[in-house]
Amino acid sequence: MHTPSEHAAYPTHWEADVVLRDGGTAQIRPITAADAQRLVSFYEQVSDESKYYRFFAPYPRLSDRDVHRFTHHDYVDRVGLAATVGDEFIATVRYDRIDARGMAATAPADEAEVAFLVQDAHQGRGVASALLEHIAAVARERSIRRFAAEVLPANTKMIKVFTDAGYTQKRSFEDGVVRLEFDLEPTDQSLAVQRAREQRAEARSVQRLLAPGAVAVVGTGREPGGVGRAALRNLLEGGFTGRAYAVNRAFPAGSSRLRPEGVPAYRSVGDIEETVDLAVVAVPAEQVPGVVADCGEHGVQGLVVLSAGYAESGPEGRDRQRELVRQARSYGMRVIGPNAFGLINTASGVRLNASLSPEMPAAGQVGLFSQSGAIGIALLSGLHRRAASLAGVSTFVSAGNRADVSGNDFLQYWHDDPDTAVVVMYLESIGDPRKFTRLAKRTAAVKPVVVVKGARHGGTAPSGHAVPMTRIPDATVSDLFRQAGVIRVDTVTELADTGLLLAAQPLPGGPRVAILGNSDSLALLTYDACLTERLRPLPPRDLTTGAGPADFRAALADALADDLCDAVVVTAIPWVGDASAAQLAAALREALAAAPTAKPVAVVHLEIPGLAEALAAPQEDPEAAPGPAAGGIPSYPAAERAVRALAQAARYAQWRKGAAAPGRVPEFEDIDEAGAAADIDVLLAAHGEAAYGRAARASGDGPPLGEAPAAPAPRSVQLSAADTQRLLARYGIPVLPALPAPGPDEAVRAAGRLGYPVALKPTAPHLRHRADLGGVRLDLGGESELRRAYAELTELLGKPEELRLVVQSMAPRGVDTVVRATIDPAVGAVLSFGLAGAPSLLLGDTAHRLVPATDRDAAELIRSIRTAPLLFGWRGTTPVDTKALEELLLRVSRLVDDHPEVVAADLEPVVVAPHGLQVLGATLRLAPPPVRTDLGPRRLPAY
User: Fold this and answer.
1) Beta-carbon neighbour count of residue 544 at 10 Å?
2) Which of 823, 432, 386, 834 lies closest to 616, judged by CA?
3) What pLDDT, on the 0 to 100 scale, is given for residue 628?
4) Which of 21-25, 380-384, 776-780 has the lowest mean pLDDT?
5) pLDDT for residue 161 is more than 90
């Protein structure tokens, strides 16, 4: 007879908010005994057909015994989850652990039977797929490795849920029932399916916000003035194509129109007879909960909360912000804000200006996200002022505290949005760096993503941003952005400069830049700027100050036709003659339109009024083919700005070419992954980490994945030299042996074992890698030299027990490098490389890549540091074996990727010789594996 496992505590960490296929939200949580009435109510709303599919027989109602069974779980062998909206069940799923005979069982049985039931009104929304992801993650946490499900052949929707999930499956048919069995270990296919569903759902949730059929402005003042009235005015003057409503509980009873706008006026959203899709909330923070409830109960899909008084105001406001998000999501709504500037969509079929911007920006192909309202309005104004027709805006959002909808959501939307060609983002914090990097890399493969990161050196989140902070240095963030193809710029001015060029011009085919113009001095400044940005400028072509529009047109046509040129910078100063700025602009655009191949062109001009506007003006010929000329030519008031934007475009184009062949994570036949895992388990257990084991979690006695144990445990454990060498050897990384030398006699015996010549060096933490102190003696060829060196070191640096001296065989001469891998809780594993000593320690000349690194990543890593020429034969030296170095980087990457318990690896120095390399020193640190939220079921962040 089955004896239930001892009940575990309610698993709060299983609670999650998810976005469904249609863009709405639902909460997934464990079912408890208090849910009995909710379960009964839910079951009553399920059709007879769905009940039949669930129980294989007519089952009109649940018995008391059924209700007790389906609401009482031990959260180990029997688990039930529910998807809820508005505190009501819309779907349920449960598993029961079974043995090989299909009978109820306990651990170590690793199979469970799973079953779903979805309310008919919510079928087709992707609820079952989301529940399957979460119940599978729960099962894996409880050491269940396989699910079995029995489904009637006619229940094609549920069969599709299982077969489309991407897990390894086995299917059979017996006694009129389809039996599906599938392993729960995530596969590349299941992860791809999960992320594709996440992308569609989150993009759809943003689309619902951007294209509402009806908008209510809640908090519209009775008199002109105030935030609500301004938001309504901006909505109307922007040309919104849908229905607009003014809402204020203080409106007089019976009022029907707000004057002078003529907009229908109501005291609550519930009073509006038609469906409202989006509510713009501009009421005091203490009134917002009532507004959210009013909107949620009447089918509003999203909120733009302009109201302040949330996390930016302190701890009380932070609690108020969390409650706002919780309440909105309980109704299936997404939230932009609070403390938001608003939302804009310039599409002709929508014309939505649900923001505090008094002016609707020109329509274009730039998607703009800003966490700051001030920066957002400055960018909108700047783009409009400089070149409204050159680079208009497709969509704009200033998310304020971005407690819910974030830049990640908009990246999901912009990836497939045909109206957005360039993504421009101002970020002050990144709530989920792993996800941001993944999404940005995918989007950057099809369109540019330009980012300026504020608050780079503050070390704390900006006011109102309740997000986890990453500890990695800003330079590392830059490298990770570069790996993802993100174009990172330093200032808002650069953000606009680069966005303008990318929106108006094609990508350059390479780094070669032609320079032409009527000022030799301005051309030389441009030439110098190109060299500074590592472009390859061609000799400038001076047209002299007497050049007219025809001369510019001919020179530009020649440059564009030159196969040795990838881009052109035109420089111009006021000229001698009567030609106008409009004539010069027309000449340049004619040359660009007639070019045999598409190449980017930028203009640098000094004190030529009207030229920027004339260059940016749209093509007047309605029969002209679309292309760069039709969109205008970007212009800049300084050579450095134009060249910097062009350099960013060139580097991005090079990354994008490489992204088409992203490399691979190689397999090494000599890696012993299983042996390394066994070693790690033993080492962690030996250091008191047994409480983190899989067996404890499976029984429900230990802490769940991602939660701390009840007893304090060390953050990490540094392995001994012997354990480090053993673990690295499992991954084909030999470390040159070093034998302890507590005295001169022991040093001589060690040298005898190793063979002369040898090195003598200290390993005390304060002396490691300090060659500048004279603490290392090399090429000691005999006993007398070794004893003399031993005496010198102890006299110079301290007693032998303080120095911890070791004797080591001599390695071949080469370049000393350092290879590291560290774990950041927010970003994940980061692989780093640099030259040992001053280059990395003093100059910070270190490069970084996310793990797992591909062969392409490893090759780029060693070439991206400034001192890389030292590896490739600088000044006639012999090049070193960079192939062996790349292999070492890939092996270290595999180690930390395969075993997340390895939270730090430090190989220093690694001496890279002309043939091969030697690892002379290594340390490893182990800790319980950090949470991998990016591999778990999809969920909205909860800060």
Assistant:
1) 12
2) 386
3) 40
4) 380-384
5) no
